[in-house]
Amino acid sequence: MIVEMTKGANKPQIKAVVERARSLGFDVQLNVGTEKTVVAILGSDTGKTSTDVFEVLPGVQTVTRIMKPYKLAAREFHPQDTTFEVGGRTIGGKRLIVMAGPCAVESEQQLRDTARTVKNAGAGVLRGGAFKPRTSPFSFQGLEEEGLKLLAEVRAETGLPIVTEVMGTEQIDLVARYADIFQVGARNMQNFALLKELAKLKHPILLKRGFAATITEWLTAADYLLAEGNQRIMLCERGIRTFEDSIRFSLDISSIAVVKRFSHLPILADPSHASGHFLYVPSIAKAAVAAGADGLLIEVHPNPQKALVDGLQSLTFSDFARLMEQIRPIAAALGRTV
Ligand code: PEP
Ligand code: MN
Q1: Which of 126, 202, 233, 336 is the most exposed place for a label (fewest CB within 10 A)?
Q2: At a CB cut-off of 8 Å and minimum separation 6, what does 98 contact?
Q3: Same CATH topology for 2-64 and 84-333?
């Protein structure tokens, strides 16, 4: 249930709503906006409570039942778009954020060359996996801590903040020492134990959409990350599995519009994992920007033919630079910059 206070509602009035909710056994989260305060009443039993219980209190403007299972990620709770800073760049603002780099950290040279190149082309965050979720246990699993150290070194040289995947609760402490943004991969979108532990830290988190997850399930998973008060959560559409088998996954362009309607969280798109092929990455990236994505996550490799992971979908340096130039006029047409 969402209680929207009037513009002039004072602290005792807000407190009265909070106390009434707590007396009924509910949890509460406050969104204190510049204009007005919104109180989210949380609990599986809110359906049994009449909205009148809150509507009669002084300073309350409206009380809305949320039929959707997610609450904290819902726009009703937080009407304005969420924006936040990472390493001097704003996520979710007018300027798009492009996160680019190799699928996996492979070597110092590979990472350094890629970071310099993507930065020159306009990327604001360096991506690179140190722990890789691989379908087969016999495939390259990532350089683990050595990879994280390389990411930190290259961050120090280039100033680019880093986004890197954390796959399990046992990796959190280690990854937290290096990462600026935790990436929760598609395969872990509903790893609730992981989400709960990550929520306790205050790091920014990029939550990928599971490739068999509905948008509602995805936003409900985001509620786990928001539950401890961390507001710095972003979503990433990375393609879902459909009956189409000529591409790796199908990037659900419409999810960008749906998420923008129902949620306040920034949403990025990952055309690399969606398509699985470098030839398709530019079209999908441009379509995502046109659809209103707040940024892109793109795989780039100095020599895709030699990449240890995801070479086919990785862009070369020149392909990436060209794509960045192609994106600029599309963003500009929407009143945005890159
Ligand atoms: C990745 O970004 O490296 C990755 C493994 O992506 P996903 O979780 O979307 O498959
Ligand atoms: Mn990859």
Answers
A1: 202
A2: 118, 122, 123, 124, 125, 295, 296, 298, 324, 327, 338
A3: no
Atom of ligand 1 nearest to the CA of 129: 3
- What digits encode the pLDDT tens for the residues 59-78? 999 999 887 889 999 999 99
> Within 13 A of 300's CA, how many CA atoms are on the CB side?
31
Task: Out of 250, 270, 275, give the residue to mutate to test ligand 1, the one with the largest number of ligand atoms within 8 Å of its CB.
Answer: 270
**Predicted confidence (pLDDT) at residue 238 exceeds the cutoff of 90:** yes
CA distance 216 to 219: 5
Which class is 2-64 in CATH?
Answer: alpha beta
CATH architecture of 84-333: Alpha-Beta Barrel (3.20)
- 220-258 burial string, b = 16+ CB within 10 Å, else e? bbbbbbbbeebbbbbbbbbbbeeeeeebbbbbbbebbeb
Report CA(26)–ligand 1 centroid distance (Å).
Answer: 36
User: Is residue 216 pLDDT above 90, yes or no?
Assistant: yes
Q: What is the pLDDT of residues 119-176, one digit of tens each?
A: 999 999 999 999 999 999 999 999 999 999 999 999 999 999 999 999 999 999 999 9
From atom 8 of ligand 1, which residue's Cα is the shortest distance away?
Answer: 185
b/e string for 4-23 if b means 16 or more Cβ within 10 A? bbeeebeeebbebbbebbee
Chain position carrying tokens 């088998």: 245
CA distance 177 to 129: 15
CA–CA gap between residue 303 and residue 113 (Å, rounded): 11
Beta bridge partners of 99: 125, 297
Give residue limits of the domains in the chain: 2-64, 84-333
Confidence of residue 117 (pLDDT cuts 50, 70, 90): very high
**Contact predicate 58/14, CB 8 Å:** no
* pLDDT higher than threshold 90 for residue 33: no
Region 18-42: what's the mean pLDDT?
94
